[in-house]
Specification:
The chain is α+β, with helices and mostly antiparallel strands. It folds into 2 domains: about 5-30 and about 190-405, Creatinase/methionine aminopeptidase superfamily (Creatine Amidinohydrolase); about 45-185, Creatinase/prolidase N-terminal domain (Creatine Amidinohydrolase, Chain A, domain 1), CATH 3.40.350.10. The protein has 10 helices and 18 strands. Strands 5-4-3-2-6-7 form a 6-stranded mixed sheet, with helices on both faces. Strand 12 (about 350) and strand 13 (about 360) form a beta hairpin. Helix 4 (about 135-145) packs across helix 5 and helix 7 (about 190-215) packs across helix 8. The longest helix has 24 residues, at about 190-215. It is globular, with a radius of gyration of 23 Å.
Length: about 425
């Protein structure tokens, strides 16, 4: 899946209501028979690994002469501290200094809940409803002996930065912490890889269950409910589902026009879950009934595109070269150039980890060198507006020996899972 962040879709629509262009937060139906948890042996990230992440970040800040980094609630806060928290008007954040203990700022009444998931030694400084969390952050910076700017985790909302800077006496320069965060999060550890494997195992099993249960007349909501139920039964935390039927499959993120399964329907399913905070993201496309020659041809072309992306992957090469290689193949067959249509209007893949979408992306302008431990999607779909689209998507990680898939590529349009 690509181009939208996941969290913004969750909880927006009740009971499977439509979201932007086909995204849905589907409600689980009854528990599917024959499915059991695949994640009972999945181990969460340990406190020792969280401490090592803090140490790495602090080493980077010291070398770059950064005094501290501010991280608000979100995946980076969980990555560094273990704290699993959501964003609201009440600020919860960590100030991680270049040396010494992290400071966690959170509402007073949330302290017990925040401390439940905290995995590092930290100075928790609560604020009451009539007090300012921004003053607590500014005070901590004033008390720090370290010189240098305050780095801001790059997804932190502007109002937090703005209010901190307006605290009387705050004199620190503010800089982006994007490069610092990426230097820590882009390369996944063996423990992270194991959790991503578990998440992808759940999702491919869920899609297989849906494929075997599909019936004529089902709507996207019906199918989405099966997906959500399967993920729950298989032990994953269901995150998102995209079910595109018939012409809707021609648009990467779908359409609000109602669609139902019928003989000859193209069925495109794109779904992901989390296991202990780590993501899956798998897409499969098939035909309900007998595929046409054109559907077979496009399906086989996309399968070959996936293979080319993986065959191109070499340590040290710019990650965008995978996108270039796939486009060269597609354009040689007559598909549109320069992300046009009909053809591949989106990148070949995206980074993935705790977030469904992380840098770097497999997009031709991306020059980040490919390195062991990086994780990506492989999804060079082809879309024909007014007709249908085909997208297969699998997640892989780079090793010293080359790319390694979490799930095997689909075999054929007749054996599509």
């Amino acid at each position: 899946m690509n181009s939208f962040t996941r969290r913004s879709f969750l909880g927006i629509a009740a009971a499977g209501g439509a979201l932007v262009a086909g995204f849905r937060s589907f409600a689980a139906t009854s528990s599917p028979a024959g499915l059991s948890s695949l994640t009972t042996n999945a181990e969460p990230i340990t406190p020792a690994e969280h401490a090592a992440r803090i140490a790495k970040l602090q080493g980077l800040m010291q070398r770059q002469k950064v005094a501290a980094m501010l991280v608000e609630a979100g995946s980076s806060l969980e990555y560094f501290t273990g704290i699993r928290w959501w964003r609201s008007e009440r600020t919860t954040a960590a100030l991680i200094p270049a040396s010494g203990q992290a400071i966690v700022v959170t509402p007073f009444f949330e302290v017990p809940s925040v401390e439940e998931s905290l995995k590092i030694e930290a100075d928790v400084r609560p604020w009451h409803e009539d007090q300012s969390p921004f003053a607590l952050i500014a005070d901590a910076m004033r008390a720090s002996p370290a010189r240098g700017p305050l780095a801001i985790e790059w997804t932190t909302r502007h109002f937090i930065i703005d209010h901190v800077q307006k605290v009387p006496g705050f004199r620190r320069r503010v800089v982006s912490g994007e490069d610092l965060v990426n230097a820590c999060r882009t390369i996944k550890s063996p423990a992270e890889i194991a959790l991503m494997q578990a998440a992808n195992d759940v999702t491919i099993a869920g899609i297989r269950h849906v494929h075997g249960s599909l019936e004529a007349g089902m709507t996207a909501t019906d199918i989405g409910g099966m997906i959500a139920s399967a993920h729950a039964a298989l032990g994953g935390k269901y995150e998102f589902g995209l079910v595109l039927l018939n012409e809707a499959s021609a648009y990467p993120h779908g359409t609000e026009k109602p669609q139902a399964v019928r003989e000859g329907s193209v069925v495109l399913i794109d779904v992901g879950c989390k296991v202990h905070g780590y993501s899956s993201d798998i897409s499969r496309t098939w035909v309900f009934g007998e595929p046409t020659a054109r559907q077979r041809e496009v399906w086989n072309t996309v399968k070959r595109g996936q293979e080319i992306a993986l065959e191109t992957a070499k340590i040290g090469m710019p990650v965008g070269d995978m996108d270039i290689a796939v486009r060269r193949y597609y354009e040689g067959l007559g598909w549109a150039k320069d992300y046009g249509l009909p053809g591949t209007s989106h990148r070949t893949g995206h980074g993935i980890g705790m977030d469904g979408h992380e840098p770097p992306n497999l997009m031709r302008a991306a020059r980040t060198p490919l390195a062991p431990g990086m994780c990506f999607s492989d999804e060079p779909g082809i879309y024909i507006p007014g007709e249908f689209g085909v997208r297969m998507e699998d997640i892989w990680h780079m090793t010293e020996q080359g790319p390694k898939l979490f799930t095997p590529l689909a075999k054929s349009i007749d054996d599509p899972i």
